[in-house]
Amino acid sequence: xxxxxxxxxxxxxxxxxxxxxxxxxxxxxxxxxxxxxxxxxxxxxxxxxxxxxxxxxxxxxxxxxxxxxxxxxxxxxxxxxxxxxxxxxxxxxxxxxxxxxxxxxxxxxxxxxxxxxxxxxxxxxxxxxxxxxxxxxxxxxxxxxxxxxxxxxxxxxxxxxxxxxxxxxxxxxxxxxxxxxxxxxxxxxxxxxxxxxxxxxxxxxxxxxxxxxxxxxxxxxxxxxxxxxxxxxxxxxxxxxxxxxxxxxxxxxxxxxxxxxxxxxxxxxxxxxxxxxxxxxxxxxxxxxxxxxxxxxxxxxxxxxxxxxxxxxxxxxxxxxxxxxxxxxxxxxxxxxxxxxxxxxxxxxxxxxxxxxxxxxxxxxxxxxxxxxxxxxxxxxxxxxxxxxxxxxxxxxxxxxxxxxxxxxxxxxxxx
Length: 416
Ligand code: FHN
Prior knowledge:
The chain is α/β, with parallel strands linked by helices. The protein has two domains: 9-330, Alpha-Beta Barrel (TIM Barrel), CATH 3.20.20.80; 333-410, Golgi alpha-mannosidase II (Immunoglobulin-like, Sandwich), CATH 2.60.40. The chain contains eleven helices and 16 strands. The chain has an eight-stranded parallel sheet with strand order 5-4-3-2-1-8-7-6, with helices on both faces. Strands 9-10-11-16-13 form a five-stranded antiparallel sheet. The protein has a three-stranded antiparallel sheet with strand order 12-15-14, with no helix packed on it. Strand 10 (341-346) and strand 11 (349-354) form a beta hairpin. The longest helix has 17 residues, at 148-164. It binds ligand FHN. Residues 36-37, 175, 217, 232, 243, 257, 264 line the site of ligand FHN.
């Protein structure tokens, strides 16, 4: 019998209901504090870059503190970089000596995170870079005499490790194969030496971890075996960052990944943080599109989640503690999203997430008669006025939430 090629229905349902996750970009690059692309951007030779491993000593790393923060933020899963494009493994792999357990730090943070995730009821998943700026069989085949098959053995072997060493996982999140990107002399060494053998890779994951979803951030329509369609730095259907050239595939579960500031990896000078209000609005818009939000933090080289990022996450978590029923386990909204409001839906209940401070909000695509409306948090009634296919809600002045106010609309309608 052929190996299963998709996640189990239970795994997919869990992932879709989770709606909010923490992305963590953490690696040697944190030491330089100029983002995770610093090795390429500043043309640092692999040997020189490897010197960072001698200095890497994140003694403040506390897996429980990280996972507790995610839980406090209302994030139901964590996706951490097991190996980014720089080729340094952040766990105790048997397939490379270029790894965190060979530094003075000597610990396996991913094992510690896996244990902490179990303690705090958060799921753990792994980012895996397909691209490797250092591996002899990826970048230096001519010099090393190694072959593309050697890289595939390494890559598939690492994925097997991640699927077998750390208990049940949420996902494997691939990155670094970008079919729509035009390579130039500048980044010619990014080009893989052959196919990644996705069918075998995905079958292995789905066999070893039947409840884990596979996502490949190829900025393209998902391939067979990819369970989720991802969007980078944009909501589904938008393409302000230039990555999302293909629109959302109908019926596919979606995930948006986004930075809190303008970098994934730790960047000392990047203080352009999105506010808690902006983050709540992005989470609401993603949920109203039927998408999860995987929100990134870039921990510092000493192993701490940057306090300004943590503070924003806690504010989002406090909002979710009041309003999470409008986000978790919901489906995309039935009303047309506007700049003022978006909606999500659970059966016959619609949640209107009001994103401005105006007293009225108008929604197009009104459901049938028999509607009633109230604020989610304290049940204060909201007035509904109909005008053809539109409804206008008049909100009370009391009970408003400075991040986003949720109105519950109940209808007798069935189905979507
Ligand atoms: O190049 C990476 C980047 O460093 C980061 O990991 C993001 C996360 O979605 N993905 C790549 C760009 O597509």
